[in-house]
Design brief:
CATH topology: Alpha-Beta Plaits
Largest sheet: 3 strands, antiparallel
Helix content: 25-40%
Number of domains: 1
Number of strands: 3
Order of helices and strands: HEHEEHH
CATH architecture: 2-Layer Sandwich
Shape: elongated
Strand content: 15-25%
Oligomer: single chain
Length: 121
Amino acid sequence: MKNTLILFMMLAFSVSLYAQQPKTQVINIKVSSQCEDCKETIERALAFERGITKSTVDLETNTVEVTYKTGKTDPDKIRKAIAAAGYDADEVKADSKAYTALKDCCKKPEDREFDHSGHNH
């Protein structure tokens, strides 16, 4: 009887812990975005990722705010998805092939073929 009571209490406690976990979370990730095209590319890439319900790139702060379902994805997977689209995401570096394929305006200033005056580097 005593063991059954302890088991019941442990089960009730674990269920209450599970119920308290949020179903969605919001994180902010630093990204290497440069322009409006970058914003569209990152947001479009994240729209197709499992578990992400919303993403918004802020070009002034070069961050993306991501709302995601905790049971479907996690921050590491989100960072990898951004990197796969060609952008740095916090400490995760952009995939080199995807980065090379970006428009010139989406690359970091030091990697652009043309400067703002249209001249080759």
